[in-house]
């Protein structure tokens, strides 16, 4: 993919804050939302803004070093839980906002199911349904 199909720095920053990118960059958006590594990128983008809070906890909370670490864990665990739980909802919203098909989220699962079905049929043949109830 050439550089002309990637967002500029200002477009990318706007994209991170929820702006819609131009249609000329839709392929990049599709790859960002459902391509390889999209789940990891989503979780990293979701948790990256917490780093200044974690640094402040670590530097400013008095006591033994495990206390701020425990406070960070109490924040990080629910954030990660909800980030993962809401990932597909957010990605579906972003796909629709950019005019892309929301079924792209299921594309990988559909390909895997098709491969499994093809593998089964190649091993056992295409099963014909009989009306005998068995």
Please describe what this structure looks like.
- With 134 residues, the protein is an all-alpha fold.
- It has one domain (3-122).
- It is built from 7 helices and no strands.
- The protein has helices at residues 9-16, 26-34, 38-47, 51-60, 66-85, 87-97, 107-124.
- Helix 2 packs across helix 3.
Entry keywords:
single chain; 134 residues; mainly alpha; 7 helices; 0% strand
Question: Share of helix among residues?
Answer: 55-70%
Q: Domains counted in the coordinates: how many?
A: 1
Provide the low-confidence segments as ranges. Answer: none
Number of helices: 7
Strand content: under 5%
Broad structural category: mainly alpha
Gyration radius (Cα, Å) is: 22 Å
Number of DSSP strands?
Answer: 0
Mean pLDDT: 85
What distance separates the N and C termini?
Answer: 52 Å
**Largest β sheet strand count, sense and barrel closure:** none
- The SSE string, one letter per element, is HHHHHHH
User: What would the principal axes of the Cα set say about the shape?
Assistant: flat
Short description:
The chain is mainly alpha-helical and 134 residues long.
What's the SSE blueprint?
Blueprint: H1 9-16, H2 26-34, H3 38-47, H4 51-60, H5 66-85, H6 87-97, H7 107-124
Helix pairs in contact: 2-3, 3-5, 4-5
